[in-house]
Write a structure and sequence with these properties.
By secondary structure, the protein is α/β, with parallel strands linked by helices. The chain has 20 helices and 13 strands.
């Protein structure tokens, strides 16, 4: 990875500037709003901000391995943002104008950056256009800082590969406890934001790939309703389950980003047109309310989500959090159950596995064929590539049993249709019934264990920093709801975050 040379003075000056900006966060952790104020008051400009992040990447990334590749045009984009701001160009008023953003390496950019999903098989491939959400980010004036590491192929190649590992990026490290999992597959975006190598990142989720890294890296992750954000130009896993979403350090930052990337995209028209009905008039930032918890009916499913080890400190921590929710005006409906959890947690029994591997073959073949240039043009080509180069020192051979299972499928047949119907039934009889019968606004759970329930239903969720276990490893709290409930989830998660302020800077413990 090559980063432009920068003055040693810039990181020092910017650290001092950010220290003066921040009130409730440590000096390095300025929010989007604080940075925008600094831009307006000419205390910091976009070039200095990019220089600062490049310096942090140079200092930390050799250990953390959260950033895969830096955009060689990042400083050029920063200078353009500064010129636009000086000239009062209309888009300079947009919420993300001049803010650097790091993208998971499965999100295509039509520039000098690679898009490889962490695999050497796609190194040098050329995409036809920016991903849909990248186009929206550029329109808002955001600066594409680079690509973040991930679990190779979004953790969909092998059951034995370590989470957060890819051949191109190496093994990502949790910045709180280096030996702990960073979780995946959007590990790099979460690591990079947590360690302040960037303030804003974008990841993807099929089943847990945002919620889990957000939880383990003490950051905020928003998993939107499937289809609320475009998946066009994103290396796919399963179109029925895939979604694209922000990872930031605060709920407000994540909401600013969500507001910028939602909406109709012609290249993902079927999904984005259908879900555009959920986008509220006036956007999402209006729901950042300090009293957002007041009157909200929140369900507590203790079994299995609150079953902590007797040796853990987390039981009392989360009981205290439930008390905080009550104190802030939420109505908790306790000891609820979600029918069918055993089947849902078994991807084979639920049908999730059958649907995902069949859709993967169709979707990845279509993506590869759309590339202008590529070393591989089909899933079969990727399998051949992995077999041929498995003995390379940099490419550990963890197997590719998921790829092989996907290659053996033949479209969406009777088996897959039955699996789709089974997921719909489990969702209807389980999560939707629990929500409906109890008139819930949300369900609250620790960590990201509820992700399979949300994945098969296409439901949204927000993970907020909530605790640190006895070893210092972060644990998030997850607020989830029915399709289109993002406004309510934002009110709840923001209210919780502001009432607790749990998040602290990384500790870099061994």
């Amino acid at each position: 990875m090559v980063t432009p040379k920068s003055s040693l003075l810039f990181p020092i000056l910017l650290t001092i500037a950010l220290l003066s900006l921040s009130t409730c966060h440590a000096h390095k952790e300025a929010t989007i709003r604080e940075l925008r104020i600094a831009f307006k008051e000419n205390r910091v400009n976009s070039r200095q901000l990019v220089e600062f992040y490049l310096g942090e990447i140079k200092k930390l990334n050799s250990v953390l391995k959260g950033v895969l590749e830096v955009n060689p045009n990042a400083l050029y984009e920063a200078d353009r943002a500064d010129r636009e701001r000086a000239a009062n160009v209309p888009r300079s008023l947009a919420g993300l104008h001049g803010i650097p953003v790091l993208l998971k390496d499965s999100i295509a950019t039509k520039d000098k950056l690679n898009t490889t999903s962490g695999s050497f098989a796609l190194l040098g491939s050329v995409v036809p256009r920016d991903a849909g959400i990248v186009s929206k980010l550029r329109k808002s004036g955001a600066i594409i800082l680079g690509k973040a590491t991930l679990s190779e192929w979004s953790n969909f190649r092998s059951l034995s590969a370590p989470t957060g590992w890819s051949p191109r990026g190496g093994q990502g490290k949790n910045p709180y406890v280096l030996s702990a999992t960073p979780c995946g597959s959007s590990s790099g975006p979460a690591i990079s934001v947590a360690a302040n190598m960037v303030a804003v990142s974008i990841g993807t989720e099929t089943d847990g790939s945002i919620l889990c890294p957000a939880s383990f890296n003490s950051v905020v992750g928003i998993k939107p309703t499937v289809g609320l954000t475009s998946r066009a130009g994103v290396i796919p896993v399963s179109p029925s389950l895939d979604t694209v979403e922000p990872i930031c350090r605060t709920v407000s930052d994540a909401v600013y980003v969500l507001e910028a990337i939602v909406g109709l995209d012609y290249n993902d028209r079927d999904a984005t047109k259908k879900t555009s009905q959920y986008i509220p008039y006036g956007g999402y930032t209006q729901f950042l309310k300090l009293d957002g918890l007041k009157g909200k009916r929140i369900g507590v499913v203790r079994n299995p989500f609150f079953m902590f080890s007797n040796r853990s400190n987390l039981h009392q921590v989360f009981e205290n959090h439930l008390q905080t929710l009550r104190y802030k005006g939420a109505i908790l409906i306790d000891n609820l159950e979600i029918k069918g959890l055993n089947a849902i947690f078994n991807a084979t029994a639920s049908g999730e596995a059958a649907v995902a591997i069949a859709e993967f073959k169709i979707a990845i073949n279509a993506y590869l064929k759309s590339l202008i240039t590529s070393p591989v043009r089909s899933l079969a080509d990727i399998i051949t590539f992995n077999n041929k180069y498995s003995d390379l020192e940099k490419v550990k051979n963890f197997g590719q049993e998921i790829f092989l299972a996907a290659e053996a499928t033949n479209g969406i047949g009777d088996l897959e249709k039955a699996a789709i119907a089974n997921m719909a039934r489990l969702t209807r009889e389980g999560y939707e019934t629990t929500m409906g019968e109890n008139r819930l606004d949300a369900v609250v759970t620790p960590g990201a264990d509820i992700s399979p329930v949300l994945a098969i239903g296409g439901f949204p969720a927000i993970s907020v920093p909530a605790a640190y276990n006895d070893k210092g490893v972060p644990v998030g709290i997850c607020f989830s709801g029915l399709k289109g409930s993002e406004p309510t989830l934002i009110e709840i998660s923001y209210g919780f975050e502001q009432a607790t302020n749990v998040r602290k800077m990384p500790t870099f413990l061994p």
